[in-house]
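It is worth pausing here to work through a concrete case rather than discussing structure prediction in the abstract. The textbook approach is simple: state the sequence, then state the predicted structure, then interpret. We follow exactly that order.
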Amino acid sequence: MAGVIKLLPDHVANQIAAGEVVQRPASVVKELLENAIDAGADQIKLIVKDGGKTLIQVVDNGCGMSTTDARMSFERHATSKLTTAEELYALKTKGFRGEALASIAAIAHVELQTRTNEEEIGTEIRITGSEVTEQQPIATPEGTAILVKNLFYNIPARRNFLKSPQVESRHITDEFHRVALAHPDIAFQYYSNGSELFNLPKTNLRKRIVHVFGSKTNEKLVPVTEDTQLVKVSGFLCKPEFAKKSRGEQFFFVNNRFIKSPYLHHAVMNAFEGLIKPNTFPGYFLYLEMEPSAIDVNIHPTKTEIKFHDDHSLYAILRSALKHSLGQFNVAPVLDFEKDPNLETPYAFKQKRAEAPTVEIDRAFNPFSGSVRPASGFKKATKEAWEALYLQTENQGATTSISSQMEEDPVQTGMFTKTAESESGARTFQYKHKYVVSSIKSGMLIIHQNRAHQRILYDKFFKELSQQNTVSQQLLFPLSLSFSKTDMNLIREIRSELIDHGFLFEEIGEEQLTLNGLPIQITEGEVGIVIDELIATRREGATPSFSTTELLAQSMCKAMAIKTGAQLDIASQQGLVNDLFACSESGRSPFNKTVYVVISENDIDNKFN
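Step two, the predicted structure:
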């Protein structure tokens, strides 16, 4: 059995390491940008083509590398940022991974041009599949320019698993946002397929957020500051009224490194409790500064998840700081037990003196005397009149039946809404303004009203949008909507499809679009919500099998469906049930969730055994 275990060849070992470091083009962008920042650059340019599949180039004005360092940087486990193992637990740099450049060079064509400030001539190195094919001196500016072409050219299986260029571009843009937001003191430029997407100058944090997400973001931000012995918290929250239905602008940074932390996200949601609607998410840009020894960044390969030594205290501090900021800037309701608002004097009455009220009464009035008239001039009812009124009310009460009262509009009584009975004899009632319950022969049918209405609207919209000539309604006045630069790029990608479905664009700017016409299914008040839903779906990376027609129908039905908490009258309950079972697939919503459940009579009987 000797000779079973063998050393892997270098090219195989490099490809295995590359699989850990490079999942997609965005991973390469992250490594190269972080290396440029650690090199001391204050101007960084990112150039991408075809979602990073064809080209990724990062140019910086950092310290550069000598000829020897340039060659050594592509060796495995070679780095300038670590000398001892203990330094792994006190990291202050970003791209410390020793296999980053070596792994990238193993699966792509790489060109490196670099020069230090002390040298007059720089170095150019070309590598293909971990093999140096060319090295020569070159005249180049101070700093480093690294170019990665044909990613995964020698691993076709990995290349086939990459998504479309549009999806990969969105992942690269997300990584660019994370790095740019962590370093507002560095100027960034980002080009994709020859077009400039971002040109971010050196600035402060607030302006950097506005430059990335659009000018409308400025009015949404609430500053956060808290300084303790454990952690220093700074950054911004988005006001509760701007909470979205998708997880969009949510960023945590620890020591200028982007992280994902469900635990800290829970602290943020706890601080917003009672201020935002259910199933909505607030935006935040939070920066935590801690001692490197108090955290462990080595628990995840991409360093996006870290471990805190005292996470319970951090949770409490963060939640308290956020609540304080929301209250300090009059975002959260504040109770003042020492001040009675009923005693406040209106501004128009501050200079007026209080006057004692005068009340006139008829002191000679006797209610049991029919001969006495009150001061108002009205004759009081006599004993005979009271008896006649009592008899009239008693007769009316005898003829009034309980069944006639039940035919009135539904009134909420406890948890249930009064039942409705159709001509066919089926009875329905609404439970907690969320479910419509109907009796059937085999037992009881419970329908989720929001999902049921989504299914009904989706089938209707999809049928109408699938027609070749979609009808568009002209607007009397053009409608302007504001979005971030990233969202506008998504809209440009699907502009032609939106035009085919009835949207008429007058102008699409950097952060604003103007509409002249809408599909007949959408009103002016709903178009912003529909486009937000469509952008959120595209940003989350919907599967390519979904067409734009399906995505638009999903966005429309989600935005326009009856919401949980809406009270339905008798006709609406019956109409919802009838329309649902007229659909081709009534059991599942457009988002593949259960629409209704059936509880059989035997199941109910078993509960009473």
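Step three, interpretation. Residues 398-420 have pLDDT under 50 and may be disordered. The longest helix spans residues 165-182.
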